[in-house]
Amino acid sequence: MTVDEYILQHIDPEPEYLYRLWRATNIHMLHGRMASGHLQGRLLKMLVQMIHPQNILEVGTFSGYSALCLAEGLDEGGKVYTFEINDEQEDFTRPWIENSPVADKIQFIIGDAITEAPRLGITFDMAFIDGDKRTYQQTYEMVLPILKKGGFILADNTLWDGHVVDHNYDRDPQTKGIETFNDYIAKDARVERVILPLRDGLTLIRKL
Questions:
Q1: Are 193 and 203 in contact (CB under 8 A)?
Q2: Most C-beta atoms within 10 A of its C-beta, which of 44, 73, 120, 177?
Q3: Mean pLDDT of 167-192
């Protein structure tokens, strides 16, 4: 038994609907492993339950797995606004969101969050950044002004399969995007931050 298998046997089980979505994502979509999955999904739900956000912004819906987990943790009246820039995802993702037990808590939007999210006129309590790694810093700068004081940003994939410390990936634009973001966040006096070495790296950022 691996450590990862041991962990999954000792945390809350993956809901059956999410398990089916995970399987469908890996069968039907390229790069299916991009979906958050069992461990990170349970963490996202619990973080929402701890923080009690009213409005959550997600940048990068992919198959909808993380949006469903975030919505699971919301109090009554809470909402996840999730943006997916790739319109080719919609035919797969929208039915999974709309047929889910938390469909009423999710607004799925096809479009570029960097330009469209501020137009919603909403102050967010939490944001989950999981879109194009090349624009992480730009996405962060979009999010910060529309995030309340004391609000949280969760940035996914910030260790990028260890590529951030592997010089073989120095010329890779997505790795460079993550490295630039990490270096920028580390020096940003507007926030406090910690990187969790969970799965592919998850950075928790709190706006001061």
A1: yes
A2: 44
A3: 94
